[in-house]
Amino acid sequence: MNLDPFDVEDHIENFTIRKPRNTPLNYAPKEKSTRQGKRIHECIPLLLADLSRSSAVPDHEGVFSVFNSPYSALHFRTCIVHVFVAGRGVFNKSFFRYFVDDGTASMEISIFKKTQEQNTITSLYNEASALSRSQISENDRKVSYSMMRLLSKAMEYVDGSKITPGSNVCLYGRPKIFREKVGLDAFSFCLDNAQSRHMEIAFNDNLIDWYNLHKIKE
Amino acid sequence: MNPDPSEQSPKYCDYFKHLLVEEIALVPDYRQLHYGKCAVSGVLGIETDGFKLQNLRLVHLPCENTLPAETLSVRLLNINYEIVNSEKLADGSPCIVRGEVVLCNVLGPGALMTARGIHELYLESETERDKLMNYLEKTYKPAINVWFIKRINQAVDLTERKLEIRLLCDEKDCS
Fold it and tell me: Is B150 an 8 Å CB contact of chain A?
């Protein structure tokens, strides 16, 4: 039998009643506050212990609430965490998975594989290295060398496979609930593997200040 | 009010909780020893009988609550010169160690115990508990089974932040 997609849709039509689309197709800006008038935060520093206790807010897609207690709750969409990578999870075609830990809880996270960006950077790198070997002036050669350095630096921020167990990494992402457990989908990451702990200390300072400001004491 | 440690058996800590060398080395009763994973920063000490993690001088705490640096130490297990060299560590370099808190037999061939094991032994022996605890305290010493070790700078500053974060967490859980 040779069916093109439209024929299949015709067949399905007989059995299913399509739901009308709730979301309008045109672009709508993200809501800054919930219908109850509470602010939805973005990019908040969080501890994994609090993140793993957060819960989805009904009726608002992608919005989670943290510090749940009878008195206070804080809504957010995205967060930043600074974690230690304790192990690898099962990788699949489009995600890297890691078990991470920040001293308050452990959690599984996924990092999206940016295959297209990686290919672009690799081909640009190859182009630059081919250029540096060709007959060009000394000045152009310097430019192509610095381009190669820049591109390999850029690759560190795109290639999720550079993250190995034992490294420290700063993640920016959104929480998700999978099999009743809270996880994190990271959009971007920044490795912090140097001996210096300035970045971790700065993150922790920011987190402590932010918690003292926003966490209502019970 | 602290519940009697004999009442509840310890629960495995499945994340790397930040502890101080002091908390492990100075535990008054082995049943209260941390059970599970830990992350400890300190100073690496290389001695003839093995590797040790020594305490830091925590400058931000009041004087009467701190010890001079390198007065206390905890044994490090599962570590060798290969690991130490690959991390560019030497005697006296500050580092952060992640692993499991265990009790190591210092007299015998290095048998291992955990706080949970001590707890179960204690519950089993109903008559000679004091004798048992005395024996265990002489034979076993706290140690860290190392999974990850890493040389770091600013170890004291980092420990200060981690203690503050523990305070933030404990306020809520009271655990």
Answer: yes
Angle (CA) A175-A32-A69 rounded to 5° is 55
Using a CB-CB cut-off of 8 Å, the residues of chain A touching B166 are 103
> Which class would CATH give B13-162?
mainly beta
For chain B, the structural domain boundaries read: 13-162
**For residues B36 and B101, is the Cβ–Cβ distance under 8 A?**
yes
In this complex, is the C-beta atom of B86 within 8 Å of any C-beta atom belonging to chain A?
no
Closest approach of chain B CAs to the CA of A152, in angstroms? 24
- For B71-99, write each residue's pLDDT tens digit: 899 999 989 899 999 988 989 899 999 99
| Chain A residues lying within 8 Å of B158, measured CB to CB | 197, 200-201, 204
Q: State whether the Cα torsion B72-B77-B83-B87 is positive or negative.
A: negative
**ipTM of the complex as predicted:** 0.84
Quick check: B168 and A215 CB within 8 A?
yes
DSSP string, A20-74: PP-S-SS--PPPSB-TTSPBEE-SEE--HHHHHT-EEPTTSTT-EEES-SSS--E
- CA-atom Rg of chain A in angstroms: 23
Mean pLDDT of B21-45: 91
CB contacts of B23 in chain A (<8 Å) are none
What is the dotted CATH code of the domain comprising A36-113+165-218?
2.40.50.140
Q: A112: closest CA among A39, A217, A188?
A: A188
Instruction: Please name the member of B17, B153, B172 whose beta carbon is closest to the beta carbon of A103.
Output: B17
